[in-house]
Design goal:
Layout lengths: L2 H10 L1 H21 L4 E11 L11 H21 L1 H11 L8 E6 L2 E8 L4 H21 L8 E5 L3 E4 L4 H28 L1
Antiparallel strand pairs: 1-3, 1-4, 1-5, 2-3
Helix pairs in contact: 2-6, 4-5
């Protein structure tokens, strides 16, 4: 088939081609407008101590403290990953879950917690609940110790951003899909007319 013939096919079916593109573009706009409001919050937790342990050779205490903080931060990340702790955090905040809570250790004393929520105002509640639940877990470790040397988690203000596909991305993707399907709908319509 020559290029002239292909152009002729599209000239005969121009309304089908543009109709398909317009339908897909409108679907993209509708998708953008009807997206549910979802926010993503980032919460930073810092590992600190309730007290300092007395040692004979104090100059090494800072090194061992950083190592212990790192191990404790890893433990907190595992706690957050467990379904039981995630459930306690959401129940304590009196907020319905919008997905899992994810956590990762950024440094020896810093943990990033990421979660999705339906209302921007729920971020503060979840941050307070996470701090309370995780510190309660840490206190359970402290019950058997004689000295007050265990860990405390301090939560910063959560950073909240809207987690929504933008208008440009939604419209562009639907337009490209529309062009693809419009091309093939014209070709299939031409094939069916000939057959």
């Amino acid at each position: 088939m020559e290029l002239r013939q292909i152009i002729g096919i599209f000239e005969k079916n121009i309304s089908l081609f543009f109709g398909t593109v317009v339908v897909f573009a409108l679907c993209g706009l509708a998708f953008f407008a009807l997206q549910p409001e979802v926010y993503e919050a980032n919460l930073t937790l810092n590992v600190t101590r309730k007290g300092v342990q007395d040692t004979q050779d104090y100059r090494y205490d800072g090194f061992y403290r950083l190592q212990a903080d790192e191990r404790f931060a890893d433990t907190v990340v595992r706690w957050i990953g467990s379904p039981q702790i995630s459930k306690e955090i959401f129940e304590g905040a009196k907020v319905s879950s919008r997905g899992p809570i994810e956590a990762r250790r950024l440094s020896s004393q810093m943990i990033e917690v990421v979660f999705s929520l339906g209302k921007e105002s729920d971020a503060e509640k979840i941050a307070a609940s996470a701090s309370e639940v995780l510190n309660r877990q840490a206190e359970k470790l402290d019950e058997s110790q004689k000295e007050n040397t265990w860990f405390v988690l301090v939560a910063d203000e959560p950073f909240v951003a809207e987690k929504k596909i933008g208008l440009a991305v939604s419209f562009s993707a639907s337009l490209l899909l529309g062009l693809f399907f419009a091309f093939w709908s014209v070709m299939i319509a031409n094939y069916l007319k000939r057959g």
